[in-house]
Amino acid sequence: MNYERILYELDDGIAVITLNRPDVLNALDTQMRAELTYAIGQAGASARVLVITGAGRAFCAGQDLGDAGRVADLNLERVLRDEYMPLISAIADCPIPVIAAVNGVAAGAGASLALICDVVIAAENARFIQAFAQIGLMPDAGATWVLPRLVGQARAMGAALFGEPVTAREAEAMGMIWQATSEAEFDATWRARAAHLASGPTQAYSKIKSALRASAQQGLEAQMLQEAAHQGALSRTRDFKEGVLAFNDKRKPTFEGR
Ligand code: T3D
């Protein structure tokens, strides 16, 4: 696929997707959703970690609202089912860790896109805005699933109803994201986190991700059965043998690439 709305780079096992419509704060349209979904699949098949970030001063301002005429004929149920769902599921189901490097505002579906990622690192100037109710809508693109799981019902409800910006530091304090950093340290921070994951045990990361994501849907017994199955598989990997050998040799392990 030729990319026009995003940039895609792969280097040393680290895939970076940059949303690239800075004039409209990287707002999402049909083409960008298609490109993103495809690129996430591409990264999942060839990289060890994926980073999603934004060009310019924003991460993503959500749905492109630039064409007011579009609303008259809009089949939003179809757009959500056929375009947003595959995108959000592609991130949740991606076999490698996905980092959202949130360089600026993440609003509406842009916040949904960031918050479904496995690790969210945000610059201090970033804000998360459940902007939907301001235009007469409700949170979508997985927001009503992910928000209460991250911050609890009370905060999710307040954020959705009031639509007030949540700063990166506030988001970190309430457990909405993993880490807020100063603007000066932002690039170095997400790059270091990505490099760490790219040199780590890829198969273990994949199982960690799948087990933690499954825990939202199943009880303790089913979860422990899944842990047993996953751990059984991991115990037969070269990475596990290498990890134990390295521990005993008092050296850093060298995990397998892909
Ligand atoms: O229609 C459907 O398919 C429904 C789908 C719904 C899913 C959703 O995502 S609903 C939520 C959609 N997003 C929003 O409501 C957010 C709209 N944007 C804003 O509220 C503000 O722009 C921000 C709070 C994000 C940032 O504010 P600020 O002051 O930093 O920037 P700005 O001046 O408002 O925006 C800069 C430019 O980006 C501006 O263009 P201009 O005047 O320089 O030519 C603005 O129009 C444009 N822009 C910002 N957001 C969008 C956008 N253009 C198109 N779509 C946008 N979402």
Task: Name the descriptors.
single chain, 258 residues, alpha/beta, six-stranded mixed sheet, 10 helices, 16% strand, binds ligand T3D
Overview of the structural elements:
This protein is an alpha/beta fold. It is 48% helix and 16% strand. Strands 1-2-3-5-7-10 form a six-stranded mixed β-sheet, sandwiched between helices. It has a four-stranded mixed β-sheet with strand order 4-6-8-9. The structure holds ligand T3D. Ligand T3D binds next to helix 2 and strand 6.
Mean pLDDT: 97
Largest sheet, spatial ordering of strands: 1-2-3-5-7-10
Our estimate of the beta-strand percent is: 15-25%
The separation of the N and C termini measures: 23 Å
Structural class: alpha/beta
Q: What is the secondary structure topology, with strand pairs?
A:
Blueprint: E1 6-11, E2 14-19, H1 30-46, E3 49-54, E4 58-60, H2 76-93, E5 98-102, E6 105-107, H3 109-115, E7 119-123, E8 127-129, H4 143-151, H5 153-162, E9 166-167, H6 168-173, E10 179-181, H7 183-198, H8 202-214, H9 220-234, H10 238-249
Parallel strand pairs: 2-3, 3-5, 4-6, 5-7, 6-8, 7-10
Antiparallel strand pairs: 1-2, 8-9
Helix pairs in contact: 1-2, 4-5, 8-9
Bound molecules: ligand T3D.
Residues 24-25, 27, 61-66, 74, 76, 79, 105, 107-109, 129, 131-132, 134-135, 137, 140 line the site of ligand T3D.
